[in-house]
Amino acid sequence: MIALTDLESDNINPFDCASRVNRLVTVETAAQGVLTLLLLAGGRWLLAAIHVAVCLLLAHMFWRGQVYMHAADAFKQLVVLKQRRFVIFGVYCFCFLLATYR
Predict the structure, then answer these.
(1) pLDDT at 94 over 90
(2) DSSP string of 18-55?
């Protein structure tokens, strides 16, 4: 999200931003899958159900190529990418609070 915000405020060029974002896409999807499997194995059913939904969303976007940022269309994709990242970040924050206070 920081790279997207830097692009929005013209602190970084689209090619650098796209390379930063695209470098982490596979890692993020794999980490989400591992976290989901660990929650399922640990018996945390509510958190696992939430993370299964996020994992399916990331897998769907990954297969359709919507998670990759193209440098030529960076400013067109910026709003949608930021919205998706903020929603996923909000789900992570909610799960953190749920795990902490439950």
Answers:
(1) yes
(2) HHHHHHHHHHHHHHHHHHHHHHHHHT-HHHHHHHHHHH
